[in-house]
Design a protein that fits this description.
The complex is a heterodimer of chains A (160) and B (172).
Chain A lengths: L7 H8 L4 E6 L2 E5 L5 H10 L5 E9 L3 E9 L5 E9 L4 E3 L8 H12 L2 E3 L41
Parallel strand pairs in A: 2-5, 6-7
Antiparallel strand pairs in A: 1-2, 3-4, 4-5
Chain B lengths: L2 H12 L2 E6 L5 H10 L11 E2 L8 E5 L4 H13 L5 E5 H6 L21 E3 L6 H21 L25
Parallel strand pairs in B: 1-2, 1-3, 3-4, 4-5
Classes of the chains: A alpha/beta (160), B alpha/beta (172).
């Protein structure tokens, strides 16, 4: 088995009081934490664990709740995944775009497609869907169905 | 027809300038267009020239099913082209939406946004088929010049009068 220079014990020491830490793969540690503690967890991952790179923010709709997984990495090539869960009736999370500048564009995408609101984001505008897409329609939610009688943007009938 | 018009028409038929617009394709069609332009097929020996700006182009090649976001942009690009202009919809997606047909973010085919003059079949079409599509457009251009416009090949809408079906009388 290969080894990375960042040990799982170091991650446990740094983030153990914020949630459960398990080594899911040889180069990947998953930390399951909560919405309130995620900014603190990101700050500690950046400072103590030397993770200077945001790989991606994964957003999952598992049917009951939404999951956000922040994948952070650094020169040690270890990926620290910070997972949080959001309730379906009030999907809100604090923004991390001030801590991790690339997170802003991921948050716009997640807000566009899954309807998760990020509090404190400077400009939570549309980025992927067309500009005339109707509000409160989130196509990547599992319970979303296209309404055949609704106009979803694109070509207006009179322009044809 | 004046001499300058005849000269312009001669130049148009001999050297069509094309521009390629990706309206949400998987890039397969774009790679085939690049193969058409590069030395193996070398369409420049026929006078076909790739042009960056739609304002300088005669033929617009559209690849891909038109996504809802690209639909207004495609319409705007087509409106920028000077007359006479011709549109080639490329591949299965350009004709009907292809594998993307019916998805929430596509409008299923180029013809829902702009009028199309030639469809090139295939997924993706081969470079020689693209050249064939351009040649077909040049044939249309010659015919249009002879007819003085493109109205001669527009489909006439025939209004069929609706006949109310006569129900048999119910005998009590």
């Amino acid at each position: 088995m290969m080894e990375t220079s960042l040990k799982v014990e170091t991650v446990k020491d740094a983030l153990g009081d914020l949630g459960t830490v398990d080594a899911v793969r040889w180069n990947r540690v998953k930390v399951t934490t909560t919405v309130e503690k995620v900014r603190e967890a990101i700050l500690r991952t950046q400072s103590i664990l030397a993770c200077d790179h945001l790989v991606q923010i994964a957003a999952v709709d598992n049917g009951k709740t939404f999951e956000l997984i922040y994948h952070l990495s650094g020169p040690h090539k270890m990926v620290v995944a910070l997972a949080i869960e959001l309730p379906r009736d009030k999907p809100e999370a604090p923004t991390t775009s001030d801590l991790l500048p690339p997170a802003g564009i991921y948050e716009r995408q997640i807000h566009d497609l899954l309807g998760i609101t990020f509090r404190g984001h400077p400009a939570l505008n549309r980025i992927i869907l067309n500009e005339d897409w109707p509000a409160n329609e989130f196509p990547l939610r599992k319970d979303w169905k296209m309404d055949p009688n609704r106009f979803y943007g694109g070509v207006h009938e009179e322009a044809k | 027809m004046t001499l300058s018009q005849r000269l312009a028409n001669w130049a148009r038929v001999k050297s069509p300038w094309i521009t390629v617009f990706n309206s949400g394709a998987c890039n397969g069609c774009d790679i085939e267009v690049i193969a058409t332009l590069t030395p193996r097929f070398d369409v420049e020996r026929f006078g076909i020239l790739a042009q960056g700006s739609p304002r300088h182009a005669d033929i617009l090649i559209v690849t891909g099913p038109v996504t809802k976001k690209q639909a207004t942009r495609l319409r705007r690009i087509w409106e920028q082209m000077p007359e006479p202009k011709y549109v080639i919809a490329m591949g299965a997606c350009g004709a009907s939406g292809g594998v993307f047909k019916g998805l929430y973010h596509v409008v299923d085919g180029v013809e829902n946004v702009i009028p199309v003059d030639a469809f090139v079949a295939g997924c993706p079409p081969r470079p020689d088929e693209i050249i064939d599509g351009v040649v077909a457009c040049l044939g249309l251009l010659k015919e249009d010049l002879a007819h003085g416009g493109r109205e001669w090949r527009q489909k006439k809408t025939v209004v069929i009068p609706r006949v109310e079906p006569k129900l048999p009388e119910v005998v009590a």
